[in-house]
TrEMBL record:
Residues 4-120 form the Response regulatory domain. It holds the Pfam family GerE. CDD domains: LuxR_C_like (cd06170), REC_NarL-like (cd17535). SMART domains: HTH_LUXR, REC. GO terms for molecular function: DNA binding. It comes from Paenibacillus anaericanus. Coiled coil: none annotated. This is Response regulator transcription factor. InterPro entries: CheY-like_superfamily, NreC/VraR/RcsB-like_REC, Sig_transdc_resp-reg_receiver, Tscrpt_reg_LuxR_C, WalR-like. Gene3D superfamilies: 3.40.50.2300. GO terms for biological process: phosphorelay signal transduction system; regulation of DNA-templated transcription. Keywords: DNA-binding, Phosphoprotein, Transcription, Transcription regulation. Residues 143-208 form the HTH luxR-type domain.
Length: 214
């Protein structure tokens, strides 16, 4: 199965160059290209990419803030920061915000592909667990009730799971792929700290997200 990639950069020539590199490897599939952080958040909520290539320097909402917001809501999405310099401050901040790593824009395409493959296979030097721990340690947001952390799409999927629909049936009903449904479910399980569909159904009933009459 291909790794579904979202490219986020406010410069057209940079977006084109990144897409050209990613297209060199059939393991990756570009499913979206956006120009700013807000678009990246909206796209991620709707389409759940596996990997996001995020430019650090962007107007309005920079890549660091965008990364933190996405990782808080979608912990399993992998994010690699794209930058023109290896400034230590940006590198540390990227890791603190939850990124799995970073790439310099002037590196050889073969280096990009090799590194991204290691990120996807979770063999990169920085582990996902470490990134999550850093993000948890530096987050200044207060912990909300778990149900409040679910996005509208996640609530919709949770309701359908509790109603007994399969992933394929949910995908057909919501007009999204089965793979996207699975990614959403991973995030829901992580956020609610439950392990399976039975526990999800119980949670949905307890919270009034779905009723026995549905």
């Amino acid at each position: 199965m291909k790794t579904r990639v979202l490219v986020v950069d406010d410069h057209a020539h940079a977006r084109e160059a990144i897409c050209d590199i990613i297209s060199m490897d059939e393991k990756f599939e570009i499913i979206g290209v956006v120009t700013n952080g807000r678009e990246a958040i909206e796209f991620t909520e709707q389409w759940m990419p596996d990997l996001i290539l995020m430019d650090i320097q962007m107007p309005d909402m920079d890549g660091l803030e965008t990364t933190q917001r996405i990782k808080l809501r979608f912990p399993y999405v992998k994010i690699v920061m794209i930058t023109v310099s290896d400034d230590m401050f940006h590198l540390l901040e990227a890791l603190k915000r939850g990124a799995q790593g970073y790439l310099l824009k002037n590196l050889a395409p073969s280096t990009w592909i090799e590194y991204l493959r290691s990120i996807v296979s979770e063999e990169a030097p920085l582990s996902r667990e470490l990134a999550f721990q850093i993000l948890k340690d530096v987050s200044l947001t207060t912990k909300k009730e778990t149900v409040e952390t679910l996005t509208p799409r996640e609530r919709e999927i949770l309701s359908n799971v509790a109603s007994g629909l399969t992933n394929r049936e949910i995908g057909g009903k919501l007009n999204i792929s089965e793979h996207t449904v699975k990614n959403h479910l991973k995030n829901i399980l992580h956020k609610l700290q439950v392990q399976n569909r039975v526990q999800l159904t119980r949670y949905a009933l307890e919270q009034g997200i779905v009723t026995n009459q549905e």
